[in-house]
């Protein structure tokens, strides 16, 4: 029995409705996946590829950086709408394990901290007994010739030593802002430690920063060395931290902008230190306080921004004859004190 045109038309309409129902069900399954933990920016549900690309290009490479951002920051940096910014931040925060840890858990986490020796027993004692720590920012400040860059070269070599010899068993990144890095000095220190100078130099990644923007960018690029090239970076050295900021931002009118930019730069370094358990060693310039009539008028550049972001702060100065003095001025768990050291061909040693 042949079908009438009316019956054929009704069947076509019913088929179309069934297809629509199926597509709606598929959409529901896509937009409402099972709750799984998202660990990467690429996996954020409901966020388009174009938005993810903008986030990455603006430096928001992980969920933590997005979760800690404000909608205004994302709107300005990524050129996205406020609604999209709020959505992305909300998704990042909901997928972050932003919970409290007990003191016992933190103590267990502290067992993963490594130390890099200075080469001087006295200076190591000043810093807790084993040298500078990973997962922290250590700042050495002082006048020219006080030994800041000497320590930078020493740490770049000693970070490559195995753990049992006071090293971290990894590579170093040296961000040079004042043209202070000297491979010849690295060779001297390496030979003093009976290491292969060529291998030591290969394990130090050096980049010359020509302005503050370049310096900030280089610090952000360190994550690519770790994640994309799988390099075992164990220390980032910035010599010096404030030279470009001090030269470019002149006058009180630019002070707020300088401090804000410097603060963001130090937060980038701290995030790298905490995420990848590596040490951050920064050198800092000093200035003389004109309103101080008694005591040492020398003060580190950068004000409270640098002071609050540095976990350990050490003031270096020249001592008697050929000695130098290291003074611990700030630490979360160590008392103030002083240590006397000298600079020799092999690096740093006790006076």
Description:
A nine-stranded mixed beta sheet has the order 5-4-6-7-3-10-11-12-13. It has a two-stranded antiparallel sheet with strand order 1-2. A two-stranded antiparallel sheet has the order 8-9. The chain starts with a helix and ends with a strand. The chain has helices spanning 5-31, 49-57, 63-67, 71-78, 82-94, 103-110, 121-126, 148-158, 183-192, 197-202, 212-227, 243-248, 255-276, 303-309; strands spanning 115-116, 132-133, 137-142, 171-176, 204-208, 233-239, 279-284, 286-288, 298-300, 312-318, 324-330, 337-344, 347-350. With 351 residues, the chain is α/β, with parallel strands linked by helices. Helix content is 44%, strand content 19%. The longest helix is centred in the first third of the chain and has 27 residues, at 5-31. Mean pLDDT is 87; it is low at 16-35.
The helix count comes to 14
In CATH terms, what is the architecture of the largest domain? 3-Layer(aba) Sandwich
CATH superfamily of the largest domain: P-loop containing nucleotide triphosphate hydrolases
Predict the CATH topology of the largest domain: Rossmann fold
Total number of domains: 2
Describe this protein with a few key phrases.
2 domains, Rossmann fold, 9-stranded mixed β-sheet, 351 residues, 14 helices, alpha/beta, DNA polymerase, domain 1
Entry summary:
It is built from 14 helices and 13 strands.
Topology of this structure?
Blueprint: H1 5-31, H2 49-57, H3 63-67, H4 71-78, H5 82-94, H6 103-110, E1 115-116, H7 121-126, E2 132-133, E3 137-142, H8 148-158, E4 171-176, H9 183-192, H10 197-202, E5 204-208, H11 212-227, E6 233-239, H12 243-248, H13 255-276, E7 279-284, E8 286-288, E9 298-300, H14 303-309, E10 312-318, E11 324-330, E12 337-344, E13 347-350
Parallel strand pairs: 3-7, 3-10, 4-5, 4-6, 6-7
Antiparallel strand pairs: 1-2, 8-9, 10-11, 11-12, 12-13
